[in-house]
Design a protein that fits this description.
With 391 residues, the chain is of the alpha/beta class. Helices cover 45% and strands 14% of the residues. It is built from 19 helices and 12 strands. The strands form 2 sheets. A 6-stranded parallel beta sheet has the order 2-1-3-4-5-6, with helices on both faces. A 6-stranded parallel beta sheet has the order 9-8-7-10-11-12, sandwiched between helices. Helix 1 crosses helix 19 and helix 10 runs parallel beside helix 13. The longest helix is centred in the C-terminal third of the chain and has 18 residues.
């Protein structure tokens, strides 16, 4: 099979979508003839998009035996809708969540409707699949393929003196503490400020909520401009650019005397340190809340935590329900039910035997049900089906 992959989410930029795109392309290339047109962080992304049409045409002229074109997300799809008029090559796009739910009338009524012309839509979760179907996609062209995860994460050895190193380098003492951990960008749907304000005060003494991820309290020029716009327009731009909309609320909660002693924010850390933090954590939480027009497409961090032997306690909403299997690699809780979260976490952290059983179950379940090779095999099956339909 000869496939043209077009993606604007690719290493060296780090992120869940970049990782998924990279693994799909590199593993598909092992058994297929693959051509890649990717934005790799060099130069302006806007300029890359402006030159995209010309670059695609050059590739299609040079490689007239391409059998399928894959687009990495809805934005990529929107930027290449002209392709359906230019070529008869089947086109398949992956949808992750916001790239189909983005709350703009123009986007929903004009662009999404044109996406119906795609020959295939691959969704990273059942929730995203449902979002596509609700927007009129042909159900015979919509497929659900769950994301994978690196099985090799289980092989990373635990650093024996990691806690001592953390204390020496950061002044944070996690020894003899029960650690609840989370990570991610400071966006509202992640529920970080909600958790800080409503759950952390009810946690038992001796419990520390460890937060990992960027927390930039000094917005750049672009953010300052967007923050001055009327709230309706502002929120759409914030979603479009993935801006950290929860920073102010998180910062306020971190300074609150009620929660201050129970929270440690470590900022952005290296991948190797992240793996060590996951290994020493007792529980990993994803306290997501519902935000209009935004959604969690899947939740790759849940799988990474699971493979490090850390049970996940997560809000049972949206794409998270496909990443966290209740009772297997974690526990699903009602989103926004603070008392349920407090009771569950306090009880779980006191039960060493249950934590150990959940830890092993998390590893076993994730290894069995998720993997990049499994994901790529399913993608290639979809590609083959789409090609055969059009022969």
């Amino acid at each position: 099979m000869k496939i043209l992959f077009i993606t604007h989410k690719y290493p060296p930029t780090i992120g869940g979508m970049e990782k998924q795109s990279y693994e799909l392309i590199t593993r598909a290339a092992k058994s297929n003839d693959v051509i890649v047109l990717a934005y790799k962080g060099e130069g302006s992304k806007l300029k890359w998009f402006l030159n995209l049409k010309r670059e695609i045409r050059k590739i299609l002229v040079k490689h007239q035996d391409i059998q399928l074109i894959h687009l990495n997300d809805g934005l990529m799809s929107a930027a290449t809708l002209w392709l359906k008029k230019y070529t008869r090559i089947p086109i398949v796009a992956t949808f992750h969540g916001l790239d189909i739910t983005y709350p703009s009338a123009i986007f929903q009524n004009r662009i999404v409707k044109k996406m119906h012309k795609l020959d295939g839509a691959i969704c990273v979760s059942r929730a995203t699949t449902e979002s596509c179907l609700q927007r009129g996609f042909d159900k015979t062209k919509v497929y659900t393929v769950l994301n994978g995860v690196d099985h090799e994460l289980t092989e990373i050895e635990k650093e024996i003196n990691f806690l001592a190193r953390v204390r020496n380098e950061t002044g944070v003492n996690l020894a003899d503490k029960k650690v609840i951990m989370t990570m991610g960008r400071a966006v509202k749907r992640k529920g970080f400020s909600w958790f800080l304000k409503n759950v952390v005060p009810g946690l038992d003494n001796g419990v520390v909520f460890l937060m990992v991820g960027p927390l930039n309290t000094k917005p750049g020029f672009g953010e300052k401009v967007i923050n001055k716009l009327p709230i309706g327009i502002r929120s759409k731009f914030q979603l479009m650019f993935g801006m950290a909309t929860d920073v102010d609320a998180i910062t306020e909660a971190l300074d609150n005397p009620i929660t201050k002693d129970k929270v440690r924010h470590m900022g952005k850390v290296s991948f190797s340190d992240l793996m060590q933090y996951l290994a020493i954590a007792d529980v990993f939480v994803m306290p997501n809340i519902k935000v209009a027009g935004d959604s969690e497409g899947f939740g790759l961090v849940a799988l990474e935590a699971s493979l490090r032997g850390t049970p996940v306690v997560a809000a049972g909403i949206e794409g998270i329900t496909d990443a966290v299997r209740d009772g297997e690699n974690g526990i699903q809780l009602p989103s926004g039910d603070a008392q349920k979260w407090i009771d569950t976490l306090n009880t779980l952290l006191k039960d060493k035997d249950k934590l150990e059983k959940l830890s092993q179950s998390a590893i076993d379940s994730t290894l069995k049900n998720y993997g990049w090779d499994k994901m790529v095999t399913e993608y290639l099956d979809v590609f083959d089906k789409v090609i055969r339909k059009l022969i």
